[in-house]
Design goal:
heterodimer, A: 351 residues, mainly alpha, 2 domains, two-stranded antiparallel ribbon, elongated, B: 346 residues, 2% strand, transmembrane (chain A), Peripherin-2 (chain A), membrane (chain A), Tetraspanin_EC2_sf (chain A)
């Protein structure tokens, strides 16, 4: 049968292929390393923001898979660089002959598979962030006052630091603070008539005020921050809360965090796509180089033409051979250790 | 008697030259590191020059940048010299330049040591600059409509949030200045009129602080106003309350930050200085070893390398003698000129 996609490779093009492959492999290793570092950074940011994401949020799977995919790409790049360097030197190539086959299979199935999975997650998971942030931020806001309740005592500090660092206030705006009690009852004077009035004014007995915590304040405002009595138009001189002003941060933390994490995911997805492209090119080049050198029986510098190919026979014949090999290994000794596995060719992306 | 004589055969000379070549290129990298450290420090000082009255001294970062550039230049030159040292033809063209070059290297090492010492000693001048700058910054906090000072409020607020500090030495500094602009005061209110009348300068002083002094770790919502009045807030005692506001003063916080930055830069510069001294000593040995090759035609022969041809005291005496001779030759020329003129005049 005819080999699949054959390519005639005399000596000069072989050398060019090896040199180009060496360069591409180092680029792939660089891309894999960068993807590794970036997903590590994203994991660190997610860990810092864990209070504001619902525990059931699957988004953390993306940087973990991307980490593994980056590692795989790094490994493939290093292997490609080593193999292409060795293919130019007759003394160094023989040890590579034996390992190159299994390494190619590992790179295609393992590395390629992980990259496809990571790309898929980068496209699908950011959609789940909306509801996770909704739940997480709502819980954090509700527990802002619970600084003495075990399990929630850090909510105040974390939410204040979030609002200070990301320049946001409340979930969708500063009025979210008007609907919850964010002042702990321990600091409310039970003898003060105003406090009693406020508590009795609503069904749940909450102390609701038209004020916000200090972390909502915007330093760009020309006047000292106004935090209380924000729904009364004439409570403060020269200040009308109904007009746009710089007093508090205008954005809600939900929108800010959503944009922040989605930007991370899109940059990571872009990086993974580039890595995937480079990985395909490197694996293809390595396969052609390997088969071309096999044709020369390992004599590197021979001047003769050889052919490089993807598969020695057609795809159907190859699948039949693989099936027969697997069957033969299975039948005579079923109680032996697992027979040699036929390489899973279905996972190849270029077929 | 020569100082620290070492015997060199061909093999040793070659190894020395190769080792020095590698060390010189590593030193070029170290020079780039010093350059970038100096640049980083300069940028950090410029970022906060508003709270230092724009009068901070840029001597340390500028000298680090200069030393980095000089180190790159000298060490790449020395690398080229070491590369050529093993080829007698190429080395011959470098020979006359080597002694002055070594003298320049020694001067460069002394300068690098001085810059390293400056890194550790700049703390004092920075402290006084910061004290004045912060005092002025707080004074101009309310002038958000005065051109040239309108960003001071934002700068001080963001400084206090980022460095977790309040005021110059502590939060009570805010009690002594008027940080609320007159534009936002209701002059028809009795309370405002009382406060303004209560002091000589007619300033509106409050026992309150801006919001940026608040500490997020406090278990209760931040108390910013009437800080010294216990009865104004429920269950509040201003003597024992520690978590409500940041306790550090911004002068101490900024000083710590810049000191630790400069200390670590000084440590790196010290390591680079030690490396440079090693390279200079190695280069001197290579120079003297190649000079003392007795038979130029036979490259395999042994030679000796030393640091100084005579002992330290003799070298110093010879140096002084050469200086005196220089002075004397001028004197003799001058006397000769006078004697020549005197008979003409006389």
């Amino acid at each position: 049968m005819a080999p699949v996609l054959p390519l005639v490779l005399p000596l000069q093009p072989r050398i060019r292929l090896a040199q180009g492959l060496w360069l591409l492999s180092w680029l792939l290793a660089l891309a894999g390393g960068l993807a590794l570092l970036y997903s590590g950074h994203l994991l660190a940011q997610l860990w810092l923001l864990r209070t504001f994401l619902a525990p059931s949020c699957p988004f953390a799977a993306l940087p973990q898979v991307a980490l593994a995919a980056g590692l795989g790409a790094l490994g493939t790049g290093l292997v490609g660089a080593g193999a292409s360097r060795a293919s130019l030197d007759a003394a160094q190539y023989p040890p590579w002959r034996k390992v190159l086959g299994p390494l190619l299979v590992l790179g295609t199935a393992g590395g390629g598979g992980l990259l496809i999975l990571a790309l898929g997650l980068a496209l699908a998971l950011p959609g789940s962030l909306d509801s996770a942030l909704e739940d997480g931020l709502g819980t954090a806001l509700a527990h802002y006052k619970d600084t003495e309740v075990p399990g929630h005592c850090h909510a105040k500090r974390l939410l204040d630091e979030l609002q200070l660092r990301h320049h946001c206030c409340g979930r969708h705006g500063y009025k979210d603070w008007f609907g919850i009690q964010w002042v702990s009852s321990r600091y409310l004077d039970p003898n003060d008539q105003e406090v009693v009035d406020r508590i009795q004014s609503n069904v749940e007995g909450l102390y609701l005020i038209d004020g916000v915590p200090f972390s909502c304040c915007n330093p760009h405002s020309p006047r000292p921050c106004l935090q209380s009595r924000l729904s009364e138009p004439h409570a403060h001189p020269l200040f009308d809360p109904r007009q746009p002003n710089l007093n508090l941060w205008a954005q809600g933390c939900h929108g800010v965090l959503l944009g922040y994490l989605q930007d991370f995911a899109s940059v990571l997805g872009g990086g993974l796509a580039v890595t995937f492209l480079l990985q395909i090119l490197v694996l293809l080049g390595l396969r052609y180089l390997q088969t071309a050198l096999e044709g020369l029986e390992g004599v590197i510098d021979a001047e003769g033409d050889t052919r490089g190919y993807l598969f020695p026979n057609g795809l159907k014949d190859m699948l039949k051979t693989v099936w027969r090999q697997g069957g033969v290994a299975h039948r005579p000794a079923p109680e032996e250790a697992p027979p040699e596995e036929a390489p899973p060719e279905e996972g190849l992306p270029e077929a | 008697m020569a100082l620290l004589k070492v015997k060199f055969d061909q093999m040793k000379r070659v190894k020395l030259a190769q080792g020095l070549w590698l060390m010189n290129w590593l030193s070029v990298l170290a020079g780039i590191v010093i350059f970038s450290l100096g640049l980083f420090l300069k940028i950090e000082l410029r970022k906060r020059s508003e709270v230092m009255n724009n009068s901070e001294s840029h001597f340390v970062p500028n000298s680090l940048i200069g030393m980095g550039v000089l180190s790159c230049v000298f060490n790449s030159l020395a690398g080229k010299i070491c590369y050529d040292a093993l080829d007698p033809a190429k080395y011959a063209k470098w020979k006359p330049w080597l002694k002055p070059y070594l003298a320049v290297c020694v001067l460069f090492n002394i300068a690098l040591l001085l810059v390293t010492l400056c890194c550790f000693l700049m703390r004092g001048s920075l402290e006084s600059t910061l004290a004045h700058g912060l005092k002025n910054g707080m004074k101009y906090y309310r002038d958000t409509d005065t051109p040239g000072r309108c960003f001071m409020k934002k700068t001080i607020d963001m400084l206090q949030i980022e460095f977790k500090c309040c005021g110059n030495n502590g939060f009570r500094d805010w009690f002594e200045i008027q940080w609320i602009s007159n534009r936002y005061l209701d002059f028809s209110s009795k309370e405002v009129k009382d406060r303004i009348k209560s002091n000589v300068d007619g300033r509106y002083l409050v026992d309150g602080v801006p919001f940026s002094c608040c500490n997020p770790s406090s278990p209760r919502p931040c108390i910013q106003y009437q800080l010294t009045n216990n009865s104004a807030h429920y269950s509040y005692d201003h003597q024992t309350e520690e978590l409500n506001l940041w306790v550090n003063g911004c002068r101490a916080a900024l000083l710590n930050y810049y000191s630790s930055l400069m200390n670590s830069m000084g440590a790196v510069a010290l390591l680079v200085w030690l490396f440079e001294v090693t390279i200079t000593i190695g280069l001197r040995y290579l120079h003297t070893a190649l000079e003392s090759v007795s038979n130029p035609e036979d490259p395999e022969c042994e030679s000796e390398g030393w640091l100084l041809e005579k002992s330290v005291s003799e070298t110093w005496k010879a140096f002084l003698e050469s200086l005196k001779k220089l002075g004397k030759s001028n004197q003799v020329e001058a006397e000769g000129a006078d004697a020549g003129q005197a008979p003409e005049a006389g």
